[in-house]
Amino acid sequence: MPTNPAIFDRQLLRTRRARARALGPATFLIDRVAGELGERLSAVLRTFDVAVDLGTPTGAVRRVLAQTGKVGTLVAAAPEVTHGDEMFPRVAADEEALPFADASLNLVVSALALQFVNDLPGTLIQIRRALKPDGLLLAALIAGESLTELREAFAQAESEVEGGLSPRVAPFADLRELGALMQRAGFALPVVDSDRLTVRYDSPFTLMRDLRAMGATNILSERRRAPLRRATLLRMAEVYAARFADADGRLRATFEIAWLSGWAPHESQQKPLKPGSATQRLADALGAQEKSAGEKAGK
Predict the structure, then answer these.
(1) What is the DSSP string of 130-167?
(2) Can you identify the CATH homologous superfamily of domain 10-270?
(3) I need a surface site. Which of 48, 102, 183, 238 has the fewest CB within 10 A?
(4) pTM flag (> 0.85)
């Protein structure tokens, strides 16, 4: 049976997240996403008896959701223990192999985790199956335009210094791909949109330090194992400063956050009308005179 290629080394991801927690994580991005997720959920005019926070690398989302008053039982589901789990029930679960029974959950949320699964279509299908009819998925993940500056600077530096490229920044899905995946997974009323955040740094090395403190450095299975050459790093910094500096000399780094929402199908949800089921002619609705296709204008 064919298997999906392992794009990401997920054991290495867990190791690097544990290191980030031990050294003191950089949480500005996950905290921002958690606040936005809480606002989006507050706009939904209903409550959810049983909810799962899937894979979010800190307790930020769970703390925000607990304040909304919209969630009854909130369960943390992740492969590793994360800060904040002591406040909530916890299930050891990998995002690629969910342990939940079909139609057992009212809400699944996830923040900055699903971009690192090897089989995102499979994970979305598992989430939809775990949701009760009319249950909701609300997730945020790093998307296509993130870290383009770092990607381009590394590509030029490696081409010049080492005569070839090595994958250093993960490939991220774009919005069209994500929308298609939501439909393929069987979600009703799927919506995909994005936010862009520009963070400014004194140097690309400060950016790389933040990525390390997020546990988000290179986990690609096809990454080069040899240490990065000093000459390549210095050339990368030069390219980054030359191409992506603002007038004050500070450097831009782009993060694109894709937002996914969709509902498990239910008979109460709105459905598109079948072709030919209209009860009123378009011409009548517009107050226009209807003409046949072959009739010339003015006759």
Answers:
(1) HEEEEEEEEEEEE-TTTTHHHHHHHHHHHHHHTSS---
(2) Vaccinia Virus protein VP39 (3.40.50.150)
(3) 102
(4) no
